[in-house]
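Please, why this fold?
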Amino acid sequence: MKKLAADGINMVIHPINDGIGGINDIIHDFGGPKNTIGKIDKVKFADGTGAFSGERRPITKPTLALLMMVLIVLKQVTKKP
């Protein structure tokens, strides 16, 4: 499941990076640096949390950050035009 999600997100990132590369080429043609705009890294998912300790622990239940993200998405989806 995680690989499927990562592949889908990376498929969205790839054309964006292609566009960034094109913009960088144009800027470079006019004398600017080759990499004016940085490209987006491929997605990597966390496999645990090291919060409050040095050891990595698996995420086994919903977290406050996850809840906040869900609320933000729901607010955007239900926003009236």
Notes: The chain has a mean pLDDT of 81. Residues 2-77 form one domain. The chain is about 50% helix and 0% strand.
